Amino acid sequence: MKEIELKYGCNPNQKPAKVFVEAGELPFEVLNGRPGYINLLDALNGWQLVRELREATNLPAAASFKHVSPAGAAVAEPLDDVLKKIYFAEDVELSMQATAYIRARGADRMSSYGDFAILSDECDEPTANYLKREVSDGIIAPAYTSKALEILKSKRKGNYLVLKVNPDFEPHAVETKEIFGVTFEQQRNAIKISDDCLTDIPTRNKTFTPEARRDLLTALITLKYTQSNSVCYAKGGQAIGIGAGQQSRVHCTRLAGNKADYWFLRQCPKVLELPFKQGVKRPDRDNAIDVYLGGETFDDTWQNLFTVKPEPLTADDKRAWLKNLRGVSLASDAFFPFGDNIKRAHQSGVDFIAQTGGSIRDDNVIETCDKYGIAMAFTHIRLFHH
User: Fold this and answer.
1) Domain boundaries, the chain
2) Architecture of domain 3-165
């Protein structure tokens, strides 16, 4: 198929809308549902991310996309009991592909609500079963088992969007887009992210553990498909905090760091033991946990959610728990201009950094890393994405 008519463009008033190729066939087919404009932006950006992450790590990969940026991305590393609990995966069958997606969605469950799911490998029954019970708009994968496809087709009253991508498709080296009647053209960003990016280490600490290398590659590839400016914290083979589309680098670092903190605070005993009533839906739990971590009061609404009113999670409680967060990796899509980014990163347990380098204040950034014992690599690669 060369062309698909869409419901509308970015907004309902933007009609008509379609996607098409000038020559050849579209690199995907619609197996169920009707795609929207933003669905396809998410699907095609996300597919590139997981394909590269799969190649770089040799592990099944997944991403959870919203509004053309990943809410989370991950590879298939095992889940411990705590992560299974906070990702609502205690009672589900786990395959490697399911584990990758559960990690990707679990990074920021608030942002992943209504996501587009992206898989590097065949969608199997465990992945489809997990997706069936989550609020999601669609999925793209290179293949589906017959049972997985049957499960997904039953989602959203039969309207769940299911796309099958051609894994062998390679786009043209030159890409174009039109803005306000003006056509832009550029070389597609085909640069490879690999261990070679982590060889220039100007800090006193020059040790990157194998886990840190995996996490830095995960973060860098995630940033390649995140709206800039962007920063990504990663741990355990997954993004744990992504700051996207900020005009200030330190605001990216703070935003992503706050998300990383929330990810870790969800593992705090007080949060794990919140006395939810039976039958409270997962989105309502996610919202309540977000309110709880933010220090807001429940007023009378707690009666609908909890068997008893929860004890507050105090600022002292948070500080004490966050001291346990270590071994986090941080990547940036461009250079850090000031050491304040490093100071904020250190507060969220960052011990490893990969960034472009080349700032006139590199010396200050290196000095700040040395102060905290952080190992930092200059990648000499900028990853702006718009």
Assistant:
1) 3-165, 191-265+322-378, 269-312
2) 3-Layer(aba) Sandwich (3.40)
Which CATH code fits 269-312? 1.10.287
pLDDT in tens, 242-291: 999 999 999 999 999 999 999 999 999 999 999 999 999 999 999 999 99
| Structure confidence at residue 296 (pLDDT) | 80
| Residue 298 pLDDT class (50, 70, 90 cuts) | confident
Is 191-265+322-378 CATH 3.40.140.20? yes
Interatomic CA distance for residues 10 and 25, integer angstroms: 23
Q: Tell how strand 161-165 and strand 28-32 pair up.
A: antiparallel
- Which residue among 39, 45, 66, 84 is the active-site one? 66
Alpha carbons 364 and 343: distance in angstroms, whole number: 11
251 is catalytic: no
3-state DSSP assignment of residue 333 = coil
Please indicate whether residue 66 is annotated as part of the active site.
yes
Does 3-165 match 269-312 in CATH topology?
no
The whole model's pTM is what? 0.96
Helix (H, G, I), strand (E, B) or coil at 23: coil
Q: Is 229 a residue of the active site?
A: yes
DSSP string over 209-257: -HHHHHHHHHHHHHHHTSPSSEEEEEETTEEEEEEES-SSHHHHHHHHH
What distance in Å separates the CA atoms of residue 26 and residue 4, rounded to the nearest whole number?
9
Edge to edge, the sheet with strand 230-235 lists: 28-32, 161-165, 136-141, 115-119, 61-66, 69-75, 238-244, 230-235, 328-332, 350-355, 375-378
The closest of 74, 109, 81 to 236, measured between CA atoms, is 74
Average pLDDT, the chain: 95
Q: Is the peptide bond before 287 cis (omega within 30 degrees of 0)?
A: no
Beta bridge partners of 184: 177
| Confidence at 148, pLDDT banded by 50, 70, 90 | very high
Report the C-alpha gap between 100 and 76 in whole angstroms. Answer: 4
Which of 142, 162, 165 minimizes the C-alpha distance to 151? Answer: 162
pLDDT (0 to 100) of residue 167: 96
Considering 32, 39, 45, 229, which one is annotated as catalytic? 229
Helix-, strand-, coil-residue percentages of the chain, each rounded to 5: 35, 20, 40
